[in-house]
Design brief:
It contains nine helices and 18 strands. The chain is α/β, with parallel strands linked by helices.
Length: 320
């Protein structure tokens, strides 16, 4: 079957390790399902995999892709939950959890195999392309807001960084849930797009805000960390799910954190139950993922190059 896969690891030039070509079809085994992929979406995890983060060389070649929607062997339209081993189903109780492509072949292919437990019904109102955007970036945003931030309707949330898959999800989900959403970003065009999505206000990166916020959604890391801490009201919460600009800020701001009793909460992906909640939320409210572009599977190199350069607003989707 045709696939886009990591053939080599290169931390300095990750895209050089990407290849397109034929790979073995997945083999059915007890407790697992083979899904015909109708759409798969890109994540920064795919770039990190090409750099060797979470993907050791002995696992190569590895088909990339965490997220997908498709049709299972029984003809059901399904969405994949990409955290393998959360429950032990299909892998045994002692295997540590992993994200698809860290141990098992991914979704940038015509077919993918996952534990049957990891499949959820695709709501009829969502296209395959829309559903494929949800299991990583949108699930991450859903957990950040509704499980870890401790916010309620009417609260003000600051989203650091306009344009990425998680940040656009945070804007759309936050507005649908009755939050006041502010967004920062270096790019004026992306700030304008955030306003179109429903953000209540946008600001250049690092700008002084009109007032302190109840929670900050932090995915940028070192470049925005100090601003995030200084933007919080006393007792507020930073939820951090990534560090695309690096994990080591110049100052940890520890004095401000303990003196103002700020909460710093780490957030990674989400559970199958939270993904079911997100699917229901989208089906009920009419919220839909923001899709930048849909490309054929052989457009994976172009899509990953755009993602690496930050030339994206919303999600990039591949269709086999």
């Amino acid at each position: 079957m045709f696939a886009a896969y990591a053939a080599r690891i290169d931390a300095a030039d990750p895209l050089s390790g990407l290849e397109l070509g034929e790979r073995p079809e997945p083999v059915a085994r007890p407790g697992w399902s083979v899904v015909t992929v109708r759409a798969a979406s890109l994540n920064h995890h795919d770039l990190w995999s090409l750099r060797g983060v979470g993907l050791p060389a002995e696992k190569l070649p590895m088909i990339l892709g965490c997220d997908a929607a498709g049709i299972d062997e029984h003809g059901n339209e399904v969405v994949l939950h990409s955290v393998i081993g959360q429950s032990g189903h299909g892998v045994g109780p002692d295997e540590p959890r992993s994200i698809l492509t860290e141990r098992y072949q991914g979704t940038f292919a015509q077919q993918v195999a996952v534990p049957t437990w990891n499949l959820l019904p695709k709501p009829a109102g969502l296209s395959f392309e829309e559903a494929a955007c949800l299991p990583t970036a949108w699930l991450t945003a859903y957990r950040m807001l509704f499980t870890n931030a401790g916010v309620k309707p009417g609260d003000t949330v600051l989203v650091q960084g306009a344009g990425g898959g998680v940040s656009t999800a945070l804007v759309v989900l936050g507005k649908a849930a009755g939050l006041r959403v502010w967004v920062t970003g270096r790019d004026a065009a992306k700030r304008d797009r955030a306003l179109e999505l429903g953000a209540d206000a946008v600001f250049p990166g690092g700008a002084r805000l009109p007032e302190r916020v109840d929670a900050v959604m932090e995915t940028v890391g070192a470049a925005t960390w100090s601003h995030s801490v200084k933007s919080l009201r006393p007792g507020g919460t930073i939820v951090i799910s990534g560090a695309t600009s690096g994990p080591s800020p110049a100052a940890a701001e520890l004095n401000r954190i303990f003196f103002l009793e700020l909460r710093v909460v780490g957030s990674t992906m989400g559970t199958k139950e939270e993904l079911a909640g997100l699917l229901s939320f989208c089906a009920t409210t009419g919220v839909r993922p923001v899709i930048d572009s849909v490309l054929p599977l052989d457009g994976a190199p172009e899509a990953l190059a755009r993602l690496a350069k930050g030339e994206v607003f919303g999600k990039l989707v591949l269709t086999p």
